[in-house]
Design a protein that fits this description.
Layout (H helix, E strand, L loop, with lengths): L12 H14 L3 H17 L4 H6 L4 H11 L6 H8 L4 H6 L3 E4 L2 E4 L2 E8 L2 E7 L16 H9 L5 E7 L5 H6 L3 E8 L2 H13 L5 E4 L11 E6 L23 H9 L4 E16 L4 H6 L6 E11 L1 H11 L7 H16 L2 E13 L6 E5 L9 H16 L3 H5 L2 E4 L4 E9 L2 E10 L7 E3 L2 H9 L1 E5 H12 L3 H17 L3 E3 L1
The structure holds S-adenosylmethionine.
The site of S-adenosylmethionine has 22 residues, from helix 7, helix 8 and strand 6.
Length: 497
Amino acid sequence: MGLDRGVLPHLSPAAADALRTAFSRSRYTTDGVRELLGNSAHAALGRGEVEPAHRATRDGGELGVLVRLLLLGAVEPDAAVASALAPLTPADAAAAGLLRAVEGGWAAALDLRPYAEEEGSGWWVLSDLDAGRHERDHVTGVGGASLTLAAATDRTPVGTLLDLGTGCGVQALHATRHAGAVTATDVAPRALAMAAATFALNGLDVELRDGPWLEPVAGRRFDRIVSNPPFVPGPARVDYVYRDSGRAGDDALAALVADLPAHLEPGGVAQLLGSWLHVRGEDWPDRVRSWLPPGVDAWIVQREVADPAMHVGTWQRDAGLDLTAPATRAQAGAWLDWMDAERVEAIGFGHLVLRRTDEPPVVVVEDLLGEVTDPLGPEVASWLRGVDWLRAHGSDDALLGARLALAPGVVLESWAEPGDDGWTAAGTAVARPDGPRWRHEVDEPAAALLAGCRGALPLGELVELLAFAHDRPAGELVAATVPAVRELVRHGLLVPA
Ligand SMILES: C[S@@+](CC[C@H](N)C(=O)[O-])C[C@H]1O[C@@H](n2cnc3c(N)ncnc32)[C@H](O)[C@@H]1O
């Protein structure tokens, strides 16, 4: 069966209403589908194993029809589809670009699935079928990177929000829950049509603008900008519009980082995903730092590092290519040659948080290569609050006058090394059990000081007590502990009481 990608999705308000009615009636929602399938078949489907889901939907009524048609890629008979989609007719669904008439009934022409960030409330998202992954203008659904950015986005309520490179519209959907007005842009007509249909289906009012990068919002400012841009570094070409910027290496990200802050309101925050090159003889944090314009607080967190072979393999696999096919090998060869020529040793991937500020900017570029346990969104909000607090307590005197407490759950870990006389203490660290699970090695005075950080006494008084107990000059202890205290506040191990 060939894919007819000639029709761009278009949902009239009436068709969108009708489809919403049908989906709500049959409980074609994340909760409804999970209940119908049961945990085992649901998990199997997540792994791409469809048979358990087929079995679970046998007696599933209208919902079973919708799951087989839209999630399992099955052909369903006309009468069953007509009753599951009513009041929308199958012919109208086909005219809207959602279904194709095939022998034996109807098949999905697009991926149309429920999506939710929490139980009990959600949306429906339209994207291209996976089978069309090789197409240059393929519109991806909610994938790993989409979820990574969504989980890392600060959801503090804001007035205006821009989603740059909206694709199927997933970031904008989240944004409608915490932003007064949402604008979404894309350069690809197919993505714009998909996003428009997603927003219509969910009855959401999102302003859609057409054009590359920041051109569609020239002269405008936003309280928040989110973007999961085409960030995959390689030679200057576009094989897939969702992935390739058309500019060489990380040039497009560099330009975006330089240009975005001018589109932020004072205090406004941009959050994006990105990839940067590790170039032989160059320090990657310096490279990323050099892109920042003045007047921007920045937190740049590297989550993954891949060597060139891993990078190319990952993205070719992601595109569903046969890695042994001559054309795939030729593409990999050209990609690896380009990285050799550019002296690229590795490719980093991570989060960029940029905040427009009139204060002397704080820029932190760091690694967070392990697993994180919770969504990073609240972490971003508290990192920004921490920067404000540290700025307000910029002098040692101000910091020493503050009351701080260890965050709930923080523990002190000690370890020892074996030696001729048994175990010998080798170090101590304080660690957070949650979120990014930051862990900082601390020396004995710092550990003792932290033990006293219970919010009751100002830090300066704790230092005095410690100096007295250890018979050391207080000034020496201040110099030894204050920089560590600042880092611990930034990473949320110490919180203002
Ligand atoms: C990685 S996808 C992200 C889609 C969606 N926002 C998400 O989070 O899943 C990147 C999107 O950027 C769009 N895009 C590519 N080049 C662009 C450009 N120069 N300006 C604006 N958008 C662009 C693509 O069409 C695609 O929809």
